[in-house]
Protein 1
Amino acid sequence: MKDGFRQSMAALHTWTGLLFGWLLFAMFVTGTAAYFQEEISRWMRPELVATAPPAPATQAAIRWLQSTQPDAESWFITPPSARNPATEVFWQPRIVDGEPHARRRRGDTSATLDGDGRVVAVRETRGGFFLYRFHFDLHYMPVLWARYLVGIAAMFMLVAILSGIITHKKIFADFFMLRFGKGQRSWLDAHNVTAVFALPFYLMITYTGLVTLATLYMPWGITANYASPETFFADVFPDNAEVAHTGVAAPLAPVGPLMAVAAQRWGGAAIGSVQIANPGDRSATITLRQAANSAIGARGESLVFAGVTGRVIGSSASQGGAMATQSVMVGLHAGRYAGWGLRWLYFLSGIGGTIMVGSGLVLWTVKRRAKLPDPMRPHFGFRLVERLNIAAIAGLPAGIATYFLANRLLPTGMTERAEWEIHSLFLTWGAVLLWAIARPYRRAWVESLALTSALFAAVPVVNALTVPRDLLSGLMTGDWLFLAFDMAMLLLALGFGQAARKAATVTSKPRRRTRETREMAAA
Amino acid sequence: MIHALAIIVTILGFACLCAAMARHRKDVFGHILTARSARRLRIAGTIALLSALALDMTCLGSAYGAVAWCGHLTAGAALVLTGLNRKAARRK
Amino acid sequence: MARKRIASPQGFAARINLPLRVLGAIVGGYGVTSLAVACLARILPLRPAEASIAATLASFAIYAGIIVAIFSARSVLRVWLWLEAVALLLGGGLYWSILTGGRL
């Protein structure tokens, strides 16, 4: 009885894995990179040198906003932190009745300031934040489509994990089994080992990923109890009612003391964000949110102050069990709470997942190639999978290396610079796909992997050549980031280089002499 | 640093569990062990892994520690596997 | 050792077997999961907001479980019969619950 069940689970595992394997590979790559999105953003904005204490920097940012955006509906300030030395601000312009609601581009309503509240002359880039957003919003498509697509992929992943566990016959006996040089068996070993070693992580990351966008995928729990989303949100966040703009001007209380009050309440935790609604008005409110690294739960505590008097008028309501569970699940997925040690563990597990998906994709072709009726002329579907594998596994990493290179090489004054950094990623990815289609299969693997290796190796070199010397030395003293980034690039270059070498030296194993091979040999 | 210490403990744990397995015993020790020593190794390995959990939860907090422990298990298992393959390759 | 065979009829029936199973799993499974989540949200003895969220959190496990069950079931016909029956039951219960209890 068990064999039929295992077989059906094996088939289910193979197809759910293959059909969304390429998208899942891309999600794993960008998701893994996103754990260091702040560091990547910092590397991509080398002009940001000095950090500043958060309270004065926030006050300076408020001064800047008061002079440039006095009529905005709300201001949102992210104070400098250990991971980001600059102050990030964005604002929501006031919508005047009667004026058409113009679609604003992200860049028009945000700015990066230094500790003194001045706009930093920093190259236009979307930094590591782009990789994070690509993870679930993809690119070149409406965000909603992308989120549905990644949700379907995540659901397929969940089923693939469950069916994989069921079908893996000797999960304990084969725990340490990794044999090299045995063709299909080696790929299966690699797939099994990377899958089993971080299995709790994959289960967690897939399920929590679905939960993060759960209201999009499964709104029925809410619609069953609430006639409209508004009534649900009013029930969950009773203190969040928007206060009407009175039109009576009143100065804002200084924010430094408020931040101290909040920090004290939260046992010394840092302030993650400062949101000011109706600034400059008598009805202004200042909402302080706890920094993400204070607790696992994503929905951190917040404190609301009256903007003019500085008196506490509200705080985040205590959460029920289900809400707290959801908050922790989202927090686990994003990993913003993690310190350095745990963050690296997240990153390594993500790399493991990337290898797991990649080895699964390659395993599919290796296994099927042995079973082809005519190995000299595989059918179209098979050839498609082979080439898409190359494009996914070598192409996207090559694109990311190019993204970093473009950040250093594109002229700073260029229009749409940030978008062109992103275009360069996809142009490279597309080029690898075309190369993979044009070249013979084995050569395509070797050349694509070698190209990826070369691109990653080029990053530290181009960095040294393009970032001004004095800036670089200023950064090197006591700043490990650039050193670590260079090391990471070199390690990736080494990894892909090794892969290219292995791909070049693989020889076809002598196949079992079946009737077909004998006929082929005879012909 | 607590992470390094916990990973060392998981390495010890997985090394014991690995050595207790018939398939890998030869690779680790160069000779076959008795069933009793295999059982002892399995118990020792399990205790080591659980000790790592206790260590993590004590030093990092129960929730954070439990999550970190999963990562330490992964790292320890991967390092033991690497060591095992190196040893097997040298034996050849 | 008795081996459970997945029913494999011949001809057209054989070819449509897999697509029907896939359809049942993806579409039918989603439908049943949605109804189950909605019913759970109304049945769970928690505050409405809490019940809604709790049911939503469980939904993906329910969906995954249904998909695995469908692909290990013996016959596609049984799969669809079960899907219909459960959907009717849950749907009817949900309808009655909303009719009598209303929504916030």
Note: The longest strand of chain A covers residues 271-277.
Protein 2
Amino acid sequence: MANSNAYNAVLAKARAMYGKHITPEQYQEMLRCHSVQEVAAFLKNQTHYGEMLSNVSEHNIHRGQLENLLRKAAFEQCGKLYHYLPLTRNDLFQVVIRQEEISELLRMVLLMRAGNAKSFILELPGYLIQRAEIDLMAVARATKFDELIYAVRDSEYAAILKRFAPSDEKGQINYIGCEHAFYEYFYRKTFAMINKNYKGQAKTQLLELVKVDIELKNLEHVFRCKRYLNASPEDIVRSLYPYYYKIHAEQLQEMVEAKDEHTLDDLFSKTKYHTKFEQTQLPFIEDYTKRYYYSLCKRYLHFSPYVSVVFYAYFHLNQVELNNIVNVIEGIRYGLPENEIKELLVM
Amino acid sequence: MAIEKMSLVHIVGAIQSLDTTLVRCCNSGVFHVELPGKTAAGRGFAPIREENPYGDILQAVTDVMSELSLETKYYDYTSLSMKKEEVPVYLGRLKEELLGIKQHKTELKDRLTDHKQALAQVRHLDGLNIRFTDLINSQNSTTRFGKLPVDSYLKLDYFSNRSFFFFDFDHDEDYYWGFYLAANTEIEDIDQLFASLYFETIDISEYAHETPQLAIEALQTQIQIEEEAIRRCDGQVDAIREREAKTVDEIYAKAKMLHDTFSYRRYATSSGNRFYLEGFVPTRKVKEFTALFDDLDHVLCEQEQVRPEMKVEPPVQLRTNRFFKPFEMFITMYGLPGYYDFNPTSFVGFIYVLLFGMMFGDFGQGICVILFGLLIWKWKKMVLGQALMRCGIASMFFGLLYGSFFGIEGSFKPLFEAVGLGDIFPLDVLDSNTSTMLLIISLAIGVVIVVAAMLINIVTGLRKKDYGKALFSSNGIAGLLFYCGIVGAAALLVLFKVNVFNPVFILLVIVLPLVLIFFHEPLGEKVKNRRRKNAEKEKFSVVDASFEIFDVLLSYCTNTLSFLRVGGFVLSHAALMLVVMTFAHMAGSFGSPIVIVLGNAFVMALEGLIVGIQVLRLVYYETFSRFYESKGKPYHPVKINYSKEEEK
């Protein structure tokens, strides 16, 4: 394996690219926009999305089109950085593509569940049609679950989908189970890739990024189920990802079995995450987890000497920025007050 | 080599003479106005707070000038005959006329932009070999022209079973340009479909009557007409400029003068119908200045020489001889000295020229430095150019001593032989004996400069009666004694094998000064507060003093050794040129002149920059830190800033 330290220029490139990301002051300015078109004009003229939006007429741009373009820009930024990576890091970019594929397949499952599979094509990102390893146009043509399985027959996704195929035409698709299975597969592949290609500190750091991500998702799930869904411990456990890092399996099990919210909070306060989360009062558990993961990625982006780690951190920071912009656009579109939209932003 | 002596000027007069007084102050070019001091407040004078009545007129005339692209600078307005009340009317009329033209031009520009965009769109349809009319006027089908995002274009295949045709003629990175055609019965559905694919319709009905080629020609004609109309608008503005420029310029100059003069009223105070103004004027020019008010009956101008006990803070204007004048920029860059301090410009200039010459000694390159300095001085008006010219002279002088002419070592030998110095000069700097001597000379120069800085500190300290600083500090007499003692004794030991380190010497020259430096703060306080019984005593910290003495000892050593770089650069310059000459030799008879020219240019650019910075560093760090306090306030005489550059 090539020495990771030999790619200092890539580190500098990633940091420079992150340096162009939207600043809190720019988010503040963006929040003052009154329409999607104004946001588009702002992004075109004031941010690093200017190049992507240069040929777009911001006066009559549609929200969906803008979001697609931003998604494409975020993907291409990762692609740009990926070009600088050594060839052995190819697998790392596959993680990005796999995540996009899974997200599109899950969107299709959701649309099928709602009986609206035909609208899948409209939001399908064009850049992914060419880059994905599955035939997304065939996925788009599927109108039934069987057809969807057939469309991805050459990939490992087919086996996952088969497990959730409805028994008859009117049978409901278990979306939550499907989502869990897809991400379980995603994490399994990611771990396998890291273990195969990396060693030493680069491996440790990459594993930390992935494991923390999983653990935070588990935490979110436990809190959400306990607070809002009143789900049984068995149901909660079924939806957890069986990986542990800073929270031991026993600790998580205790949290799952907590009698009430107060006990859950007490148990959480004994975990290592308690001190790491923001100390201010925030409405949802996701507000804490996303902010913490954002800061972790930022730290690795700035201080890790390994290109793979920096690339992985950059990929997540890019996603956060994209989500933030989408939140601003949606918030403005639905007329949410400025401070409410601001609460949704991870900075 | 001093700081300009200032006199404090008090002007008292009848309030109606204030404007005239201020105008004369501005025109004198020597009056540095001050905010009224305690004297004025004690006598019942209060600040004047009035809104500037000339603000609106100045704004209006500046707007008009900007529309007419006139330069804001001083114009002679003595011939301006317009009455005060006529000016706003005149400017209003002019502004309105210009606004009309501007609006018309904006409309034309908007139309031009639209047509240029339409042209760009229709040009994309240029590949279409049919008549627009045939498509648009079809009875059974509808055609929509426009552009489809590339992402959506990839998805068209999905809709192959729908009844429409999409024809593309052109594409770029983001869009496919073309049209879709559908039966009238289906068009609503197809429109919806294309809307969901973010197809942007381009309305070309106004131009698309025949073929795209004809539409392009029609649009081009339209664009030409509009461009012509815009040029006509510009012509109208030119005509107005031609006609009104003189009057507008004169109004501007007068309005600016009145406005700026009025704004200086904030420095004046009034009591009843009297005003009071105070400021500083260089003592050399104070008689000339006070004479300006002799003919004003109601204005009295008095002056007094500034003295330390007056507790005023006069502004600082450096007075330096012409040779070292350009080096004032290094002083102002660092911060001006206090009014009662020493103007170090000549000292800095001398060190700078000497060290630059030593480190960059090459006769030919020195000539280039002079020429470069002359160029940037004359062309870009940069003071640095003048400083470089002086440095170039020193480079030439040392280049002569080193026998270096554009890197050709051993030049000028016949010259030195002719004057009988052929045995010593030119110096072969790369010879081991000469290079050792050069390093020793560098150190010696360093010692002299450090001692000179200490002496300056002692003199200014004594002059300001700051005995702690002058006598006991590390740069005072105690420090000087210690430093000179150690350096002198070391020199005697190394050069003449004379050991003077006996107990008496150690006690008096090493231990005693160190003890004094250690206690310099309390000792200084004691001397200063001798006559002040109730003066507050600052707490003496042994830990602080211990660290300080450690730092002092280290700095004597490092500051002196720092000058070794002077010798180092002499050697590196010679070595670099040796490399250039070796390359030139290798390049053969054709290539060698090119290599010599490029090599010299490279060495001059590289070393010139490094040497310039290094010398400045030596000056700032090794000498200024010993005596210099940049607490002076710059001397800014009041004046009217007619042009924007002046305001900066």
Note: The interface with chain A takes residues 149-155, 157-158, 172-175, 196-198, 200 of chain B (CB under 8 Å).
